[in-house]
Every structure is written in structure tokens, then in C-alpha cells.
Amino acid sequence: MSDSVPAEASLPDELMPRGWARVRALIAKGVQIPNPLAVDIGDDVAVERISGDGVVIHPGCRIHGAKTVLSAGVVLGQEGPVTLQDCRLGPNVALKGGYAAKAVFLDGANLGLGHHVREGCLLEEESGGAHCVGLKQTILLPFVTLGSLINFCDALMAGGTSRRDHSEVGSSYIHFNFTPSGDKTTPSMFGDVPRGVMLRERPIFLGGQGGAVGPVRVAYGAVVAAGSILRSDIPQENSLTVVGGMTSMSQPFEPEGYRGLNILVAKNLHYLANLDALEQWYRHVRQPFFAAVPLGDLVYEGALEMLAAARAERLARLRALAAKLPGENAAQVTFAAQVEAVGAGFGTSSVPPDPVLVDRLSGEARRGVPYLSAVQALDAADVARGTAWLAAVVEDRYAAATALLPAVARLPRR
Question: Which of 162, 166, 188, 193 has the fewest CB atoms nearer than 10 Å to its CB?
């Protein structure tokens, strides 16, 4: 593989590809670009935000956006051209062919040929998928693996302990996130944040040729048989679910009746509360690990932006829902009147972090221990403390929101 500047570099600048000066600068700092004339680097890309340590940019790649970061060991375009727009890639990320915009990929995340990743996505360490994976407003915790031919938008998934023991979504799976009423108040949670970040939970398996109609909540250890379409929660851990075909029917349909409004809102608020817990984990635990690696602070900044974007998306969808409600009952009237106040409480937390856990993990970061190794080495007491802290954040945010919505507050908690 040659990363030298070709003879064509002697041609007049006006005949060279756009971004040629930045291509030459990247080659000079050590980036491997086998065919420099076949790479497009946008005028807004900052060379200093691209590492020269082991980064490979294959032919056909287009890189744009002032926020773009390529950390050490990133490989782009191994299977086909890659287009990046304002994405932040941590170390050793491999995007093999596709499109990604306004997303963040952490250490070892990877996606195969034909991926299409839109705004609000955060793929944590060693998570990813095979070919033709579509994501938007998606959060995958470490090790979560998606098969091929998948659309998995508006969802958070956790579970698993390692690359050999991970939550998985089978090929040809769809998370149905758009309703006949035109809503996207449909975020689903497969696992949760307080337990998921501790990397101790049984993986979740969603069989291929299946789907889930959001919003659903699925417990750790759940196995869903191939071909099943989930339309309800799976609260039981370590369970097997097989969903048969639907019964033929035809009846009148009222697209904006919202008879299940309280449950719909409760699931959205619970999702928002988990986002707040994940943000607290990043701010108090994860930040030192980012700071310990080159360009890590920029990737950390991007991760917080993704969590803020996820929160903004969910609140926007709740506002849109409130604006559509016919106001035919007290629950609808109350929700429409209180939606702004409900949303205002998210993005903060009055629950202090666990000092013992934070100090222990901060010390590991200072010693250069990788994030995954540090979390996997926690003892049972540390795991319990961390889970209790984050669960308290979730409960605090959820309780504050539902206090404004009596009908939602009366729903049983799972």
C-alpha cells in the first residue's frame, strides 16, 4: 500500500480535486490514503481533528463537517465508499461502506457495507452491525450487534458482557417507529441504562425476520423467536417469546383516538429519564476515560451532543403529539396543558453521583486502564452502588415528570 503523494500533485491547483491541500496535509501527518485523488475532504474539515496514527481512508470516501473527528486506528471504506458529515469517531472504528451524519462512534464500533446512519446516533464500544443497517436516534451500549438488512431507529439497546456475550438483533429486523397517525412518540428500550452500563446483564436476542412496534420495553435475557412482531412489552427476564400471525380483521380505525395515551406518555418519559441517567454516567464516570486518549475530549463532547439531541427529539415528538390531541378527556387536556412543564425537568439531575464508584473509576482512567476493562473489573459492591445511583436518577426524573400528570403517575411501574 502506497501513501505517497502521486505525480499528479505537480498539476496546477485548479486542476486538483477539491480539498487537495488537506489530503496532502493528512498524508504528511501519517494518514494512509492509497488513492489520494479519489478522496474528497471538505473545506470545513479540520486536519488537526484527524489522527495520523493508523488512520486509513480508502478510495471513494467523502469527509465533511467542521465537527468531524477521526481518532487513531479508524478505517474508512474497506468495502465501499464512505460519506461522513460531522461525525466523531473514537479509536479503531471501522465504517466499511455507507453514509453517516451527526453521529458518534466509540472505540471499536463498526458497520458493514451499505449502512445509513442519521442524526442522534451513539454507538458505544464494539457495537455495530453488518451490511445495510439503517439507524437514526439510536443508542447502542457496548457489544450490541445488529445483523444485516435492519432498520432500527428510535431505540436504545443494552445487554451482554463482552464481544462473545452480547445482545443481538437478527437480520431483516425492523423497529416500527412511525404510526398510522403520523407519530414518532415510539422510542423503545431493550434493556435499560442503570444496569446496562455495568456490563453484567444477560443479553437480549431479537430473532431475524421480525420486528417491534414501538414503544416497547424488553427485559434482559429475553429471547424473541425469529419472525415474531412484538406489539407489547416483555417484562419477564430470561424468557422466550414466540408471536404468532395476526388474526384477519377489518374494522373502523380512528387514527387519533389515543386510547392508550397514558401508557404511551409513560414509556416516553421513562425513555427520557434513562437518557438523563446515561448523561450523568458520561459526565461523572466516562469523561476521564475520554480525556486519557488523543482527541478523546472532542469525541466526549460529541457524545453529550448526541444525548442532548436524543432528548430534544423525544420532547419534540411529545409536543407534536400534544398538539394533535382532540382534548376529549381529562388526561388529554392535562397532558396538552403540561407538556412544556413536563419536558423542562429533563436534562438535569438532583441525584448526586456515588463518590466511591466515581473515585474508583477515575483512578483507573488516570492509570490508563481502558473504559471497558475498568467497568468489567468492578466488584459486586461497586456495581450495586452504580446501579442504585443511576436508578435513582431515572426514578427522580420520571417522578418529577409524572407528578404533573396524575393519570400517568397512577400507572403501575414495571
Answer: 162
Evaluate whether 225 touches 181 at the Cβ level (below 8 Å).
no
Q: Within 13 A of 322's CA, how many CA atoms are on the CB side?
A: 22
Burial class (CB in 10 A: 0-12, 13-18, 19+), 7: exposed
Backbone angles phi, psi at 189, to 5 degrees: -120, 120
CB proximity list for 119: less than 8 A, separation 6 or greater: 101, 102, 103, 136, 137, 309
Q: pLDDT class for 252, splitting at 50, 70, 90?
A: confident
Average confidence score pLDDT of the chain: 93
Whether the Cβ atoms of residue 275 and residue 310 lie closer than 8 Å to each other:
yes
Strand, helix or coil for residue 332:
helix
Burial of 259 (0-12, 13-18, 19+ CB in 10 A): exposed
pTM over 0.90: yes
Contact 201, 220 (CB under 8 A): yes
Which CB contacts under 8 angstroms, 24+ apart, belong to 19-22?
19/43, 19/45, 22/47
Which residue matches cell numbers 450523568? 280
Yes or no: say if 237 and 220 are a contact pair by the CB < 8 Å rule.
yes
Counting DSSP H helices and E strands in the chain, the numbers are: 10, 28
Q: How far apart are CA 92 and CA 111, in angstroms?
A: 12
Residue 74: alpha-carbon gap to chain centroid = 19
Alpha-carbon distance 36 to 19, whole Å?
A: 10
CA distance 45 to 21: 11
